[in-house]
Amino acid sequence: MAKEYSVDRQVFDEVMVPCYAPMQMIPVKGQGARVWDQDGREYIDFAGGIAVSCLGHCHPVMVDALKAQAEKIWHLSNVMTNEPALRLAKLLTEHSFAEKVFFANSGAEANEAALKLARRYAADKYGPEKSEIISFKQGFHGRTFFTVTVGGQEAYSDGFGPKPGAVTHLAYNDLASLAEHMSERTCAIMMEPLQGEGGIVSPTPEFVQGVRELCNKHNALLIFDEVQTGNGRTGDFYAYQGLGVTPDILSTAKSLGGGFPIGAMLTTTELAAHLKVGTHGSTYGGNPLACAVAEAVVSEVTKPEVLAGVRQREQWFREALATINAKYPVFAEIRGKGLLLGAALNEEWQGRARDILVAAGEEGLMVLVAGANVVRFTPSLVIDKADIDEGMARLERAIAKIYS
C-alpha cells in the first residue's frame, strides 16, 4: 500500500511549485453550494472553482455519470474514438453553431487549438503573410506560451524569453481603433464575449457587431473564447447566442465538465478540414471519463428551466448586492451577465477587492476577485435561494467588519 501522509497547508510550501498562494484552509468535502474544510468548518461557495462548478459540488447527474463510465473504459488515446466523446460532440453541435468538435483538457488547450486552426486556415487559403492575431488588452486566454501571449496582460507573459510574433493587442470596446488597425494581414480576432479576468467587462452591442463585420471585410476569422462565459454561465448556453453574433471558432472548458477537466474547440466543417490528420492532437483529449461527465453536465445545463434559472439568480444576486451597498457603500456598479458578475469597487475602495475576499473567507464565504478592484461571483448555476441569502448575509458581515 502507498504510504499515507497527514497533510496541512504547510505541506504545500514544502512540496509544491510556488506559483500559487492558496488560502490556509483545505476543503475536503463539497455538496451543492457548500464546502467543508479539514476542521469541519462550512463555507458557502460563490466562487464555483472559478466558474467551473456549474452544477455545484457532487451533483447526482455528474456522480452517476462518472461511476457508470468508471466501470466501462477510462482511456483509449486517439488511435480510436469512443462513445462518450461522440455523444458529447453531437450534443455540442446540436446546441451551438458548430459542426465539428476537437476535444482537449483545458481552456488553454482549446484556445491553442483555435489559434493554430486560424493560422493554418489563413496560411492554406491566403498565404503565410496573413498571420496577424488581434486580441484585446486585459483579455485572458490561458497559460500556454501562445495563449498567454495572445492574452492582453503582459504581467502573465513577460519574463519567459521571446514571445510568439504577429500578435497585436488593442483596447476592448474601441471599434474605431480596431477598424483603423485591421488589414488583409489580419488572420483572426480572438476575444471574450464578456471579459472575465480583466474585470467583468461586457462588450457594447456596437462593438461586438462591428468586430464581426470587420472580420468579414478582411477575411479574418472571429474566435470567441467562451471558456468562462460558456455552458450556461450567462443565461444562454453560449454567450454569443445572447449577442446576435456568431463566431467562426469557439473555445469552451471550465463549466463544460462541471469540475472534471475537459475543454473543446468548436468550429465549422469548412474550417475543420484544415486540421488534417497529424496537424494537431491531444493524448487525453476526448477521454471517455471526462466526456461522460461533460455529457451529463451539458444535458442538464441545456434544460430551459436551468437557463431561465440563471437569469433569475442573477436578479437575486444584484438585489442582494444593492441592499448591502445601501448600508455599506463600497461598490460603484455591478457588472456582467447571468452568474458571471463583478462588483466594481468605488473610488474610496480602490485596490481592496482582496481585502473583501479575505474577510468573506473568515465569515465562511468563498468569492473571487477580477483584478484589484472587482469582487467576482461565479457560483453554481443551480444554487438555492437559501444559499444565496445566507452567503449574502456572510458577505454583509465581512464588509461591515472592514468598513471604515
From TrEMBL:
Catalytic activity: N(2)-acetyl-L-ornithine + 2-oxoglutarate = N-acetyl-L-glutamate 5-semialdehyde + L-glutamate
PROSITE patterns for the chain: AA_TRANSFER_CLASS_3
GO molecular function (one): N2-acetyl-L-ornithine:2-oxoglutarate 5-aminotransferase activity
Alphabetically ordered keywords of this record: Amino-acid biosynthesis, Aminotransferase, Arginine biosynthesis, Cytoplasm, Pyridoxal phosphate, Transferase
Cofactor or coenzyme needed: pyridoxal 5'-phosphate
Gene Ontology CC: cytoplasm
Keyword Iron in record: no
Main location class: cytoplasm
Cofactor note: Binds 1 pyridoxal phosphate per subunit.
Family matches, as InterPro entries: Ac/SucOrn_transaminase_bac, AcOrn/SuccOrn_fam, Aminotrans_3, Aminotrans_3_PPA_site, Class-III_PLP-dep_AT, PyrdxlP-dep_Trfase, PyrdxlP-dep_Trfase_major, PyrdxlP-dep_Trfase_small
UniProt xrefs under CDD domains: OAT_like (cd00610)
Gene3D superfamilies hit by this protein: Aspartate Aminotransferase, domain 1, Type I PLP-dependent aspartate aminotransferase-like (Major domain)
Cytoplasm in keyword set: yes
GO biological process: L-arginine biosynthetic process
Record: residues binding N(2)-acetyl-L-ornithine: 143, 282
HAMAP family in the cross-refs: ArgD_aminotrans_3
Miscellaneous comment text of the record: May also have succinyldiaminopimelate aminotransferase activity, thus carrying out the corresponding step in lysine biosynthesis.
Subunit structure and binding partners: Homodimer.
Protein name according to UniProt: Acetylornithine aminotransferase
